[in-house]
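testing teh design pipeline on a random one, pls ignore if ur not involved
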């Protein structure tokens, strides 16, 4: 038995504890003191459950000039993420059973962390054929990958998902609310895809979902939160919490749905701290610097973020702006619960997916440090607390802040 010691977040609070890890990578004991064949003492560092990121685009297969599965999952591990949920808008998109099976085969043995895969059914019948996917993604508006579905198609998908009890993750923007015309910057883009587009899409969902399980991706404002259907869950991205239209990053900040005004960002922070938002999700969606270097209206939407979500929020937690229990819930336990996977919590019988962080140690974010294949981050120079050690099923995948193992990730089944 391997023993890992530190200040463990266990059953809602921090305590000096020892974790016993069995040969199968699961936690077999949580006690004040344990002895094992191998012992690692992390002293005063915090031991938290590894993060579960509900929303990433690793661009593999087909778009691997931007990112690929090994590079993206390596960066995820460095940010404390031990499980990712990979989106279906790759090339080819995961719209058929064959595409799903081919993606499963293509990613096998190449991930540094565990993962689940989304599919993007285009009809009610396709929901059944894609039943092995962890969940479904539905785009109500245009975004990367040309997978937008109309109201009739989405109603069919929701009916099929209601029968199967599969989760449907919705990109909720109503394109009828979009304004056409030349867009020259972040404020123009926010106005072109306004907050009203989110609220309108969510009101439609509330009246059309039936009994389907739905999760709302990347809410950007309290107006959208107010319209989230009763019983649905929702996520917020760090870029909508930390960035806004006042930041001088041009097309690097172009994302769907858009960054909002500073007042909207502050209101979103208040809602997050108050517990109105279920989960933090990075919506890691990298593009190359060349792609982002064209005029704003021609640039693709999306930005990288999987390595910085937890570190940015841990720094705010250290500053006293976020409660630690709120952080752990939003980055680990609640996302795992939404997906229906046995992750996100430190408990006997669970996988020993752990991150170890000393919140007293902060550093400036540097793109080179993150190892993204795209080579840049919109959070350059912001302060963050990165984990110094990360364990996947009890084996270290990050040591001293650097990648320590690759290819250990597995496809995870939903419960």
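output:
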């Amino acid at each position: 038995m391997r023993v890992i010691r530190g200040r463990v977040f266990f059953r809602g609070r921090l305590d000096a504890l020892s974790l016993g890890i069995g040969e199968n990578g699961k936690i077999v004991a949580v006690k004040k003191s344990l002895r094992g064949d191998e012992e690692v003492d992390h002293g005063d560092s915090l031991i938290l459950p590894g993060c579960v990121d509900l929303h990433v685009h690793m661009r593999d297969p087909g778009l691997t000039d931007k990112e690929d599965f090994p590079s993206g999952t390596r960066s995820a591990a460095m940010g404390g993420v031990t499980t990712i949920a990979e989106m279906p808008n790759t090339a080819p998109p995961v719209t058929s059973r064959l595409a799903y099976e081919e993606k499963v085969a293509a990613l096998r043995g190449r991930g540094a962390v565990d993962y689940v895969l989304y599919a993007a059914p285009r009809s009610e019948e396709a929901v059944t054929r894609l039943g092995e996917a962890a969940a479904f993604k539905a785009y109500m508006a245009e975004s990367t990958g040309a997978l937008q579905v109309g109201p009739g198609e989405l109603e069919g998908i929701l009916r099929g998902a209601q029968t199967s009890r599969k989760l449907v993750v919705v990109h909720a923007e109503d394109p009828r609310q979009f304004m056409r015309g030349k867009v020259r910057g972040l404020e123009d883009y926010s106005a072109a895809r306004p907050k009203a587009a989110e609220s309108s899409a969510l009101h439609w969902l509330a009246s059309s979902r039936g009994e389907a399980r739905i999760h709302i991706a990347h809410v950007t404002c309290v107006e959208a939160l107010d319209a989230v259907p009763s019983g649905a869950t929702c996520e917020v991205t760090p870029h909508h919490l930390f960035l806004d239209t006042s930041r001088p990053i041009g097309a690097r900040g172009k994302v769907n749905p858009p960054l909002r005004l500073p007042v909207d960002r502050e209101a979103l922070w208040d809602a997050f701290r108050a517990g109105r938002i279920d989960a933090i999700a990075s919506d890691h969606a990298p593009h190359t610097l060349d792609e982002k270097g064209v005029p704003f209206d021609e640039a693709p939407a999306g930005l990288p973020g999987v390595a910085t979500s937890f570190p940015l929020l841990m720094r705010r937690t250290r500053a006293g702006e976020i409660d630690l229990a709120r952080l752990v819930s939003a980055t680990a336990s609640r996302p795992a619960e939404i997906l229906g996977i046995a992750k996100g919590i430190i408990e006997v019988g669970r996988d020993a997916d752990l991150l170890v962080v000393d919140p007293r140690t902060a550093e400036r974010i540097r793109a080179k440090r993150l190892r993204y294949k795209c080579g840049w981050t919109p959070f350059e120079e912001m302060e963050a607390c990165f984990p110094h050690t990360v364990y996947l099923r009890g084996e270290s995948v990050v040591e001293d802040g650097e990648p320590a193992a690759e290819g250990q990730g597995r496809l995870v089944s939903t419960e």
